[in-house]
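STRUCTURE:
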């Protein structure tokens, strides 16, 4: 059995970048957003149920994220319908990953760790964080979301301060070197525990 870390943080706070750092330390990493990408792609398990709920969202055999965003913009409750389809499939993908790895530490990158029940299934929770102005700058610099879309997603997520209060560790992602140091400390602490267990 691997030691499970749940890695979370609000939109654009640096989850993916920090997850890569855990991978560099030898942890196996599973990424919930990447699982959603697989589920939405041609042949993915979300395509058929999404077609039933939002026929216009299937383009060339895959789920179109732009169409989903337009559906959500039209009717906010669409996101709940999408989540109802996607979340059980994501959970299945995650269980398969955990069962198939023999890494000593598995990092589960889960944006909605504390909003859902994900935190109950992990041994350690880690939240990535930077001040809100830096978060906004980073998200808008990607150019994939309008300011309104960013605010809408942020409003659906638990506020950063609450996540930080719930997490066992907070990783400040202001610079790459600072974040890497904090990741190494967490990994060292867990490996020490595993050695003494
Ligand atoms: C809304 C969608 C179409 C936007 O797609 P897009 O490619 O523009 O953005 P991306 O997927 O990269 O998400 C951007 C940020 O929003 C967060 N986010 C995505 N869905 C949600 C949600 N349901 N609630 C809160 N935050 C969310 C992501 O974790 C990420 O931090 C897409 O995120 C989606 O289909 N979401 C539903 C599935 C879901 O709940 N995923 C969350 C992880 S399981
Ligand atoms: N430690 C860091 N130092 C400097 N820049 C960083 C750091 N971590 C992340 N960033 C930058 O912040 C932006 C967002 O990072 P990343 O994509 O890792 O966030 P995320 O939380 O996975 O995003 P999302 O929730 O939207 O999927 C990127 O431009 C990334 O390069």
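SEQUENCE:
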């Amino acid at each position: 059995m691997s030691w499970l870390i749940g890695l979370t943080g609000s939109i654009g706070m640096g989850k993916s970048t920090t997850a890569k750092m855990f991978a560099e330390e030898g942890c196996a990493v599973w990424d919930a957003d990447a699982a959603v990408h697989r589920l939405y792609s041609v042949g993915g398990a979300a395509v058929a149920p999404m077609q039933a709920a939002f026929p216009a969202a299937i383009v060339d055999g895959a789920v179109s994220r732009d169409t989903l965003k337009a559906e959500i913009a039209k009717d906010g409750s669409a996101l709940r319908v999408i989540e109802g389809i996607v979340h059980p499939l994501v959970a299945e993908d995650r269980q398969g990953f955990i069962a198939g790895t023999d890494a000593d530490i598995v990092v589960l990158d889960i944006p909605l760790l504390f909003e859902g029940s994900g935190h109950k299934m992990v041994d350690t929770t880690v939240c990535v964080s930077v001040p809100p102005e830096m978060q906004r700058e980073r998200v808008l610099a990607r150019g994939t979301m309008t300011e309104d879309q960013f605010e809408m997603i942020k409003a659906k997520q638990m506020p950063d301060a609450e996540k930080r209060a719930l997490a066992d560790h907070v990783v400040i992602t202001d610079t790459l070197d600072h974040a890497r140091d904090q990741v190494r400390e967490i990994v060292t602490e867990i490996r020490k525990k595993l050695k003494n267990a």
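REMARK: The beta strands are 3-8, 28-31, 58-59, 62-63, 105-109, 124-129, 169-172.
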